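Protocol step 4 of 6: record predicted structures for both targets in the notebook before any analysis. Target 1:
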Amino acid sequence: MFSQKTLPKHCNELQRELLNLFHSSGLPMHFNKTGNKEFTNYQRISLIILFKRNKKSIRDFTKELKESRWVSWLGLKKIPGKSTLHDWLKLFGTRLIRQLIKLVTDVSQLRIAAIDGTGIQSKFRSQYYEKRMKDFKLKNNRPYHKLDLLVDTNGKKQILEYSFLLKNRSDTYVGKMIVGRIKFKRIKIVGDKGYPDYEYEELAKSNQNNFISPPKDYKGKGKHSNYRRQRKERNYQSNKQVYNRRAIVEAVISSIKRVQDTKLRSRLPYMEKREMAWHILLYNLRMNIKFNENKLNCRAWDIDYFFIQIKIYVFPDKAERPKGLNSHI
């Protein structure tokens, strides 16, 4: 006989990840000792992540939340309003969200990491307006948001480190910040031809890492020595199979843009940075759910299974067999 553990009546994989995240973060249930305590920090973080996954406005999200099961799963006493949820977005800073991202990131299988950059559009930018400006050869002074990612290519394809800037900067400038910021050791980092600077190799070697990228053809105009160029060429040729995993970072960028619809809704610069950080946290949670092997098996009650083994024994007796029957019966 064995019994199954009692689980919540309505359990969800995302809810399990949110619970683990909140318990590992060490945040208190409430920031204030006195005053209003209608909502806990666990409920605030969960609702913000659900709002980013919903891909709708705050007003529409709060209306649909009334019909959702998350009200009972999170134990909400009341539905937060539009202004309340907007105040929660201002409550958590970028530094705290970065710490939450590290808590949900699994680096146990980290061997090869890939780096690449992309542009992030704003929800309020009109692509038609920008196209017409190009047709009339008008200068566009609207800001360009730059997102650079360092992605694990072996494990759960999660984002290890990122940089989000409100203006366009070269991959060489941003890549140095990311490579110098990481604390992982003995891994290989691959990048495209947008990272031709030889300082990447020195930054990577400081943490016993190896930076791999194809050498850029300067056509005789480069100021770098032939020795350094040949050394980079040999490093690239010897790790050519490793470099093929660089395509995974492009798949991660495509997943963030298509699945999560990362067109920024915020207008203020500091709110745009926080919004992008919440999107990256949501992506790492999605990868944890996708690659989780032990899926939840929800039950409303305990179930006991009893196995009964029945054996039939034959005891011979001296009774006479009826006539006409076969002798082997």
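Target 2:
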Amino acid sequence: MNVLKKYFKSKLSVKQRLVLKSIYNIFMKPGKWEKNINDLKFALSMYKDEYIHFLPPVMAVSVTDNCNLRCPSCLFLLENEQRFFHSFISVEKFRKVLETYNKDKKAQVIFLGGGEPLMHPEIEKLIDICREFNLSPKTSTNGILLKDKVPALKKLEHINVSLDSYDYASFKKYRGGTPKQFDAIMEGLKILKGSGISFSISFVLSTENVTETSRMLELGREIKPDLFYFHNINPHGSDHFNSLCIDDLNTKVFLNNVTNKNDYDFDIFLPVIFDTRSPLFLKSQCMQPWNYFCCNSVGDLSYCCHLAADKTIGNVFEGYDFNSPKMVELRKFIISRKFPPEIMKSCLYCQRRFMGEEYGWFDSKAHKWFIYK
């Protein structure tokens, strides 16, 4: 099965795979007819229609716009130092969002984001509401509050801990946190493992820390997550961080070292490695304005989960219909393989533009690497 997946992944575009998957589900999963038809409409519309007439399959709601860290590489803070404000979506308003946009239960997944989502005082109630609407709730957390939220975490479909560090020195450098916070994360990870909760850990890589990946993997062997993600940093115009590119020597060493071993007891996902010399680098399209429905804690919309919310795009409590003038304009740009100049610095090195073009992944059950480059 993995060999077949590798073959189709290398031969088909992301859009082609989504179309085929949707058609397969329509015939093989008749109990989810409306959701499967919605998915097919999404797949057929992507990169083609500026106006959409379906529900984006993935919902992403920032349940709080507050955070207990101020990471130097935070994509939100790089755009706006005042990005984090003390706001939590209420249980009632959260339910209203789902009643308005997923009453027919066509969406598949909901990401409960932030800020730091576990700071929401009623996060467990929000998770319960997601389940009522047949959504698979997932979240990504910095891990500081893991040990305090175990009952809620057990109800999630998946948890990712954005670790980005392997000891306190690296935590202070890349996260700006305290010894107490780092110790809380390590304790929380042990509790997750001991409770049998499925989770992943992730590390954002840049040319500044790619030489430290062996230390990250050592920590992975100690923690034993289900999944281990490496992400390529999006510098959002910052000159303090640089993305991994195919001609960078340290990047080549990292890829060679990590793929020369097959004794990991967790799956590993390697990131997109940018080829800035390719003519497609500037023209690669992004599926997010078709695939994602993103809003913050006060209902303001964002183009995707990597860009700040802006009321001028739309607001979920003021009749947003997926086709606001700004969202339609963005889709027009992407269809023509361009991006508006004002967001180009944020999109240029975003790996979500290159979904389906990741370097490869490791299957811990088969003890085998699948390299796509």
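Step 5 preliminary note on target 2. The chain is about 35% helix and 15% strand. The CA atoms of residues 73 and 174 lie 7 Å apart.
Proceed to step 6 after PI sign-off.
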